[in-house]
Amino acid sequence: MPRNSRALGTPEAAARTSLTSRILAVNIFALAMLAGGFFYLDSYRSQLIDARLEETETQVRLIAEAFVVTPPQDRAKLLVKFGHVTETRLRVYPYTSGLKAPPQTAPSVDSWTYSRPTYELRDPAQEEWQKRAARFLDRTIDVIVGADHPKRFSEPVRDTLQAWPLAWQAAQVHGLATDVQRAPDRTPMILAAIDIRDGRGGGNILLSTENQRDITRIVRAERLRLGVVLLIVVLVSVSLSLFLARTIVRPLRRLALAAHRVRLGRAREVQVPRLPERRDEIGTLARALSDMSLAIRQRIDATEAFAADVAHELKNPLASLRSAVDSLDLVKNPDLQQQLITVIRDDVARLDRLITDISEASRVDAELARARFESIDLGVMIEGLLATREARGRNGSVRVAFARPHRGTAVVFGDGSRLTRVVENLVENAVSFSPEGGLVQVSATRDGDDVVIKVEDEGPGVPADAREAIFNRFHSERPDSEAFGRHSGLGLAIAKAIVEGHNGTILAMDRDNAPKGAKFVIRLPARSL
User: Fold this and answer.
1) Judgement on whether residues 509 and 376 belong to the same structural domain of the protein
2) Rounded to whole angstroms, how far apart are CA atoms 342 and 433?
3) What one-character-per-residue DSSP string does 225-239 give?
4) Cβ distance 105 to 93 under 8 Å?
5) Residues 285 and 255: beta-carbon distance below 8 Å
6) In a 3-state reduction of DSSP, which class is residue 186?
7) What pLDDT score was predicted for residue 89?
8) How many Å apart are CA 157 and CA 180, to the nearest integer?
9) In a domain, 183, yes or no
10) Fewer CB near the terminus (10 Å): N or C of the chain?
11) pLDDT single digits (tens) 438-476
12) With b meaning 16 or more CB within 10 Å and e meaning fewer, what string describes 222-251?
């Protein structure tokens, strides 16, 4: 099984699984590719955060420049206004240059001191279950995609410059420093700190904190859309997979079961489903298997009938031969002994003819299946055959006339030796039924896409009710003048098998415009040029 599957290009592992499993696996693989969109969402979130960082840096620089040029008494109002516009919390921490460690300096200005808060840090334990479920899904997807885990944000118990490492970092580099942290409810917190020098050996640190809750909301909305699409695709894909499994696997299983029963030798009882309603490849396969099963059944029946007929035909000459041999020792009269020896000789010859014809009949189909067909000009073939018969005197007093066609007009594609055997059997049959001095007419003509061979004699003809039976094996109706046992009754059966092996037909009928006689008509497909 694995060797055959590899020969057909099917992986060995796939050959061990059912077709239903493979259909589902292929569709699930496509769904897995679609589920990879969650990795894109993580990248999309990172791009949003980076964009917000750049935006925050620009805002902080502008606020710092405005802070420097604003009179000290108006700076609190300035920060409150900017805090409301940007939805951030702005704090200013004064410090003295040259310090090795951040001082315990409280903010000189805090935008929330003069106005309401611009964002709220929510406690996850106080939120509804939908939010908790969304956060659980966030954590799960972050683990799957390997997302970064920012530091958790929290407001210091004592708000001083020392409590903000980012602010002291900005003071150390005399520039801008940014960071992304995570609020308790897993929403992004963007922090930015910038050093504002006062030119007198000191300075201020402007600290901006902002809760970018909308980033989480945007990502969750996109994830919901992707999840809905994925769910719909999953349902459609599974439904299509089950549909394909039902329309493909189930009929194939029925066909396999029927074929298995045929293999077990129950061919006569098994009806292979033909699935006439299906017009696809499975329907074609079902009808092909049904036809094959029918052909096997017919072949088995024909073989059994042939074996029974062979046993019956061999039994008669064997019985006669045994009787003659048993009587030979008891008979003392030389004349009677000579008669018994003649009977023995005739029975042996009859057995030899039977065995030869039986062997020929049994291997016709097999030899035709292996034969290499070639172009045969039936006019040339028949002319040579009749010349050989005439030279050997096999026609006796019967005249055989052949209306030879023009060369190349009666050409077929087939096995020349087998087609010669067909014409030989028909001519031999016609000569044996013809009266003394009778005429046998043979012709080969082109009729449309067929080549038609006719063999006519002036014998008694074939009765209408026997025109099909004469082509059966061991069916023999011989003229009264012919000695018993000279023919096995297989000649016409062999001829029919050969003709049908060439996709042709053979019929027996009355002669046209003649009081008596038989006519055999063979139609073979003409060789297309």
Assistant:
1) yes
2) 26
3) HHHHHHHHHHHHHHH
4) yes
5) yes
6) coil
7) 94
8) 20
9) yes
10) C
11) 999 999 999 888 999 999 998 888 888 877 878 776 666
12) bbeebeeebeeeeeebeeebeebbeebbeb
